TrEMBL record:
<dbReference type="Pfam" id="PF00092">
    <property type="entry name" value="VWA"/>
</dbReference>
<feature type="signal peptide">
    <location>
        <begin position="1"/>
        <end position="28"/>
    </location>
</feature>
<feature type="domain" description="VWFA">
    <location>
        <begin position="35"/>
        <end position="217"/>
    </location>
</feature>
<keyword id="KW-0812">Transmembrane</keyword>
<keyword id="KW-0732">Signal</keyword>
<dbReference type="InterPro" id="IPR051266">
    <property type="entry name" value="CLCR"/>
</dbReference>
<keyword id="KW-1133">Transmembrane helix</keyword>
<dbReference type="InterPro" id="IPR036465">
    <property type="entry name" value="vWFA_dom_sf"/>
</dbReference>
<keyword id="KW-0472">Membrane</keyword>
<feature type="transmembrane region" description="Helical">
    <location>
        <begin position="626"/>
        <end position="646"/>
    </location>
</feature>
<dbReference type="InterPro" id="IPR002035">
    <property type="entry name" value="VWF_A"/>
</dbReference>
<protein>
    <recommendedName>
        <fullName>VWFA domain-containing protein</fullName>
    </recommendedName>
</protein>
């Protein structure tokens, strides 16, 4: 993903930091695309060739040309550059030029502006970041995308401190950084800028990777891709694990297989939920990523481990959710052996990239959820036995703008037809609330494309703990297509859940077990690049329509220990019992295990809440050790996924 724009030449020295630009636009209405400022490096080193061939500035120009053809209508894009004059350092470090304030995309103007940029001078990234922020609205989601081949050569201001200052001001602003053939020092600085504001850093060692990275990053920025959670740094050993309460956290992981550890107290009878969602923008289709979650019980012994993985895609934000549910006391037959006693549990998490080692240096944001669910004194109705049926909603199509992540998913308030417009390479997120007793059935229609090509399309359903419970994929040629395909697992031609009941978790069917919590259910819709991984430049609007049916009336769910009489009835419960409670509250210091398991039973009940809301992410750091091996199973899973896609593609084309 990525972003950039237009040009104007400044006369020598005059207004090197251009101030005579129109005022930043007012905040966009909720649901609109976020405005983006693109900052393009034009320092002297951009004249140099890449090891793989081609001058850096030429490669950057080509990437921008490709990007602007892909951007959706309504995108507000601004363009800024620095280093376009050969000046002494004092003046050269003020050489920042706003070529275009954020405004509706004009591909011709942007292309002309980028083509006229001539690299010459210094690299004042800190000042460029300050200047770009001033061009954007003062409120609402907004983003800056920086492409550079080197670190700042002008500090002060230090660019990482500038990013921290912007975050400290409470600005809902994220900086996404892309390093074009950079060294370790530059990578570290660009990573700091991104992490301080909740954005991402992406390596781009050559022309092809820059093209992909710029498009993916920019699409994420305008869709307001927003890793969210309370910043936290996992410990490098179980003993140094920070203590957490239920909620959502944000950490960063390197793809080196080294575990980070977190600790949580599990009272007697409580169910512990653990979910993690790493984000991998800009990877190739051939990249396989391994994921590990390890559980250590109050005795200090390993009692559960979950290894998984799959192929990371360049045309998808590609959330990888791994859920582990252990039970301490309630329904012990569902818990892994040894994970049944109350006390302090330690959770270790790691990511590994066993195939493509070149990606191992880039840290990735990792949204981590911890949830506690108390004992159900009255579990409520029996487990569901049949999925809900799809009923065509009434009414016309309501326009929506899907988000770029779980945290920014567009809310679909009830049954209905919802219309959006996707660009090639996008995956967008929506959410629907299900109360106890309700189920969800939906389908998505891809309309006629204004630019035809053959690409992969995909749609998925996720539970409140981000467990994928339904999906389908096929090929799309621009003439219209529907997911899911009718027949097989989808006889009604619609994705469908079971009615949400607490007792579903006792079923033998894995999908039914996952649909045992009320709350937000997520729908994702993807429009890929090209069959077989071939990138096909150029934009194109593809209308999509989601037909959504919420089936059934809200019912009284389970009654939990300590819940007031009658509060399980929807009409009487002002605050439903949910399992994930928004932003979590990490402890200031490392966890200190209780002296015995019984001490956890005497502690105050931890909050019960599984909803995913909260403020934008902030900087979180950290490294860690402990090696994890996830090799053959990952590659096999990826191969199976590829075969499934090819088979569906042949069937559908």
């Amino acid at each position: 993903m990525s972003s950039f724009k237009a040009l104007l030449t400044a006369t020598l020295l005059g207004a090197l930091v251009t101030a005579a630009v129109p005022a930043a636009p007012a905040r966009a209405a909720d649901g609109q695309l976020a405005p983006v400022m693109m900052v393009l490096d034009a320092s002297g080193s951009m004249k140099d060739p890449l090891p793989s061939g081609g001058k850096k500035i030429d490669v950057a120009r080509t990437a921008v040309h490709d990007l602007v053809g892909r951007l959706p209508a309504g995108t507000q894009l601004g363009l800024e550059t620095y280093g376009t004059h050969d000046l002494p350092k004092d003046a050269g470090c003020r050489d920042v030029t706003v070529l275009r304030p954020p405004s509706a995309v004009d591909a011709g103007a942007v292309d002309a502006a980028v083509d006229s940029i001539a690299p010459a001078g210094w690299t004042p990234i800190g000042l460029a970041l300050q200047t770009a922020a001033k061009q954007l609205p003062s409120t609402g989601p907004r983003s800056i995308v920086i492409v550079t081949d080197g670190a700042d050569t002008c500090a002060p201001p230090d660019p990482c401190q500038v990013a921290r200052d912007l975050e400290a001001q409470g600005a809902d602003l994220r900086a996404y950084t892309i390093g074009l053939d950079v060294d370790d020092a530059t990578r570290s600085q660009l990573t700091c800028i991104a992490q301080a504001t909740g954005g991402t850093y992406t390596d781009a060692p050559d022309a092809g990777s820059l093209n992909l990275a710029l498009n993916r990053v920019t699409q994420s920025a305008i869709r307001n891709y927003q890793p969210t959670g309370t910043p936290i740094t996992g410990g490098d050993s179980p003993e140094s694990a920070p203590a957490v309460s239920p909620g959502q956290y944000l950490d960063t992981l390197r793809l080196d297989g080294k575990l980070k550890y977190y600790a949580i107290d599990v009272p007697a009878g409580n169910t512990l939920y653990v979910s993690r969602t790493p984000a991998f923008p800009g990877y190739s289709l051939s990249t396989f990523l391994g994921s590990t979650v390890k559980i250590i019980d109050p005795r200090g012994e390993d009692c559960a481990a979950d290894f998984g993985g799959g192929g990371a895609s360049r045309d998808s934000v590609n959330p990888k959710s791994l859920i582990w549910r252990g039970v301490a006391g309630d329904l012990p037959d569902l818990a892994p052996q040894g994970c049944t006693q109350p006390g302090r549990y330690v959770v270790g998490m790691a990511m590994a990239n066993p195939i493509n080692g070149s990606s191992a240096g880039a840290p990735v944001p990792d949204e981590i959820q911890f949830g506690l669910e108390p004992t159900a004194t009255d579990p409520g109705p029996a487990a569901a036995t049949r999925k809900v049926g799809f009923t065509e909603p009434s009414g016309g199509v309501v326009p929506v703008t899907g988000g770029g992540s779980f945290g920014t998913a567009a809310t679909l308030p009830t049954s209905g037809h919802y219309g959006d417009v996707l660009q090639y390479g996008e995956e967008v997120f929506y959410r629907v609330h299900l109360s106890w007793g309700q189920g969800l059935a939906w389908r998505v229609d891809y309309g006629q494309a204004d630019k035809r090509r053959t690409v992969n399309i995909e749609a998925k359903t996720f539970t409140p703990v981000r467990q994928q419970v339904d999906w389908d994929t096929s090929a799309y040629t621009g003439d219209g297509s529907q997911l899911p395909s009718a027949g097989g697992q989808h006889p009604d031609g619609a994705f469908a859940t079971y009615p949400v009941e607490y007792r579903n978790r006792t079923a033998s069917d894995g999908t039914l077990r996952g649909e045992s919590l009320d709350g937000w259910y997520y729908l994702t819709v993807k429009l890929g690049y090209g069959i077989g991984g071939a990138d096909q430049p150029g934009g194109g609007n593809v209308p999509v329509t989601l037909d959504v049916a919420v089936v059934g009336s809200p019912q009284a769910g389970p009654r939990y220990e300590g819940q007031a009489a009658g509060s399980a009835t929807p009409a009487q419960a002002p605050t439903p019992v949910e399992v994930f409670g928004g932003m979590g509250a990490p402890a200031d210091s490392a966890a200190t295990p209780p002296s015995s398991a019984s001490s956890a039973t005497a502690t105050t009940k931890l909050p019960v809440n599984v909803a995913l809301t909260g403020t934008a992410s902030k900087k979180s750091g950290g490294g860690t050790p402990w090696a994890v091996f996830v090799l053959a199973p990952v590659a096999v899973a990826g191969s199976v996924a590829t075969v499934v896609f090819i088979r569906k593609a042949r069937r559908s084309v």
